[in-house]
Design brief:
691 residues; alpha+beta; five-stranded antiparallel sheet
Length: 691
């Protein structure tokens, strides 16, 4: 095997000796790094190097001399001794206990599952498992959707959860049902392999089924990257379908890129040529999109890939961005959310090799001692982009070209009815917090089954129905409306862009409510909007998480609430509607019942002091947090002139007071109830009409 380190490679790139990096930092003793490097460079026989402190990330791990070994996290030890993510999970699954042990709990993540308990229940722990599917581009074949719908009722809690990474989550599966559920998913054109764990997660791409060269190419690229970085050692199929491989044929370019080892990216003769025994230091996230379309939160990923086309719309290559990530830890300032930054441009035929080189760089140099710092963003932060680029180029074998200039990003929800471009239509449906349940679940099932539709999950926790014939539009519109799936014009604009993670009661990391709390919080935001005189169509991006890990990407929101204690939140401000700017922490430990004390002055002064068309996030940044905190601290309620009845809705005080009394029964105010009545009336009149 050849290596670019310390030599001139075939492309004529001379390695900078100042940029030589120990190749397997965290996987072995650093005192042997040059020895292993020399071994690779000159192809010395393995028998010439028999140091007991060497830990190889290959198919047969060598037990290290722990006295000379650098510190590694417990999860690294579990992975090393697991026989490629099999042991002790295979033994634990066969026991009568309702749960699995600590090592197996870590390993089952690679299979796409988390062990959970219901934290609302007191007494003995009630164990269950959450399963997460892997759906590149959010694609859900008809057969898989119907299978997931059935599994939710038969083995779950009766609901399906759409995630912010375009996948399903199925909650409440008992241990003894895992194999049945997993095998059903696999045999229904689905998979959960790699949906969790220290490897590449689901690859995002715009969910819209637009028949356009750039969109189709972005989605095909996402599929190829997902295939390239899928584990190869068979542990998943051995565990759930007794070793039967149920796979579709891979494109030849994917197989070629995976097998290529011309620049030392692979572990020769390993069942996992890219991952080795140790896989990656932490999760790894990739997104692909086209210019302007930021439906995927492109800059929050470890790797962001953007199609670059010529003037005729023909894809030519890709801009690559690296180092994004949301997770952080409270009260540890050395952990932080981070936006990806430009790495460079590659031709379209080189994208798989470039992504593989980035993965290898993180694999060999990311920290494995402390998992708080194991994401690639910390490697970028430590090295800087120039050093990172130089090391990646040595794995890649080429120099990156400068990124192409791109237009401004836009958030695209794809809600409502749209032309696909092939004569058919697609319909984007808003799903509050991604939770499909009750009448909505029944209606979706009926429509998808009756019309044999495929679906796609969006990164904003919504769902798209694809390939709809024009003749089906009216009956589908009527059926959806009757099931509570209204046209987006009848959904509160605050709800359209809002997101929350599941949090309590099942997530073990949650310290505050998110999904269960956001409906009430959005109503309170809407009430404050009305109180300070903001219009109904003026909305902001609100995202809420129950802990600082940031699954709903709250650090990109204009108003982000991050749980920092029971019924307590950090408030983050400064994100933008197109998700291109990261927010900052504005306040800590704001109690749930005190949110209006912060919201009222912020929204009041946004209405009064904003510049033309200035978003709330941009306003917050321009004003500065010191000034905003001063306004919050001095707030003593709205000026008297601002407290007036909304005469557009209520012609007299008596009507207002009567409506207000009715509204209180539903925990709303008069204006909210009146608007809801009006919207429902209009929606009922629209049912069955052509859009």
């Amino acid at each position: 095997m050849t290596t670019p380190f310390g030599a001139t490679n075939a492309t004529g790139i001379a390695s900078d000796p100042n940029l030589q990096i120990n190749r397997f930092n965290g996987l072995r003793s650093s005192s042997h790094s040059l020895l292993l490097l020399n071994k690779r460079l000159h192809k010395f026989p393995a028998s010439s190097f028999t140091s007991p402190s060497l830990i190889r990330a290959v198919s047969t791990p060598v037990k290290p001399d722990t006295s000379a070994e650098p510190k590694r996290s417990k999860v690294e030890i579990f992975k090393e001794h697991s026989n490629f993510i099999r042991y002790p999970l295979n033994e634990e699954l066969s026991t009568e206990a309702p749960n699995i042990n600590e090592a197996a709990t870590q390993l089952i993540k690679f299979h796409g599952s988390y062990q959970q308990t219901n934290r609302d229940e007191r007494g003995p722990k009630s164990y269950s498992f959450m399963l997460r599917t892997k759906n590149p581009c959010g694609k859900v074949p008809n057969k898989l959707y119907l299978a997931m719908d059935d599994l939710a009722d038969q083995f779950g809690i009766g609901t399906l959860r759409l995630t912010t990474r375009q996948t399903f989550q199925l909650h409440g599966v008992l241990k003894h049902d895992l194999k049945t559920v997993m095998s059903t998913i696999i045999r229904s054109m689905g998979s959960t392999l790699g949906a969790c764990g220290d490897l590449n997660r689901n690859v995002l791409a715009p969910a819209a089924p637009l028949v356009r060269k750039d969109y189709l190419f972005a989605q095909q690229t996402a599929d190829n990257i997902a295939a390239l970085l899928t584990p190869q050692s068979g542990f998943y199929y051995d565990t759930w379908v007794d070793g039967e491989r149920i796979l579709s044929a891979e494109p030849p370019e994917v197989v070629k890129a995976r097998n290529d080892n011309s620049n030392g990216t692979n572990f020769p003769d390993s069942p996992e040529p890219i991952y080795g025994t140790q896989f990656l230091p932490r999760k790894f996230k990739v997104a692909v999109t086209v210019p302007t379309d930021n439906s995927v939160d492109i800059l929050t990923n470890d790797v962001g890939v953007v199609v670059v086309s010529d003037d005729d719309g023909e894809p030519q290559g890709f801009n690559i961005y690296v180092g994004g990530g949301m997770g952080r830890t409270h009260r540890i300032e050395t952990t932080f959310p981070r936006l990806a930054e430009p790495l460079g441009y590659v031709l379209k035929e080189d994208i798989l090799y470039a992504v593989k080189a980035i993965v290898a760089t993180q694999r060999d140099n990311g920290r494995r001692d402390d998992r708080k710092y194991s994401r690639m963003k910390y490697l970028l932060s430590s090295w800087g982009i120039e050093k990172f680029r130089s090391v990646v180029e040595q794995y890649y074998g080429k120099k990156f070209k400068p990124c192409h200039e791109l237009p401004e990003w836009e958030f695209k929800s794809y809600l409502g009815w749209h032309e696909q471009g092939d004569g058919r239509l697609f319909c984007g449906l808003h799903v509050d917090n991604g939770r499909i349940k009750g009448t909505m679940k029944k209606t979706l099932r009926e429509v998808i089954e009756k019309y044999n539709l495929d679906a796609r999950i969006t990164p904003n926790q919504n769902i798209i129905l694809c390939d709809i014939r024009r003749a089906w539009k009216r009956p589908i519109t009527t059926a959806l409306a009757q099931g509570g799936l209204l046209h987006p014009r009848y959904v509160d604009p605050l709800n359209v862009t809002a997101m929350a993670c599941p949090a309590l009661p099942l997530c073990p990391l949650a310290i505050a409510e998110a999904e269960r709390g956001i409906p009430d919080i959005l109503k309170r935001v809407r009430a404050v909007f009305e109180k300070v005189g903001l219009k109904y169509n003026e909305a902001i991006v609100v995202r809420i998480t129950g802990c600082p890990n940031g699954c709903a990407r709250p650090y990109m929101a204009e108003l982000g609430l991050v749980g920092d204690g029971p019924n307590s939140y950090q408030i983050w401000l400064g994100g933008t509607p197109n998700q291109s700017t990261i927010a900052s922490c504005f306040m800590n430990k704001v109690k749930l019942h005190d949110l209006e004390k912060v919201f009222e002055p912020l929204f009041y002064y946004w209405r009064r002091k904003r510049q033309p068309s200035e978003s709330f996030g941009t306003f917050s940044t321009r004003m500065g947090f010191e000034k905003l905190k001063e306004l919050v601290d001095k707030w003593d309620g709205l000026p008297e002139s601002s407290n007036r009845y909304n005469l557009k809705l209520f012609a007299d005080k008596e009507t207002y007071e009567a409506m207000d009394e009715l509204a209180k029964l539903e925990d709303k105010n008069a204006h909210q109830l009146a608007m809801e009545v009006i919207r429902n009336f209009v929606a009922s009149q629209q049912n069955g009409k052509s859009e």
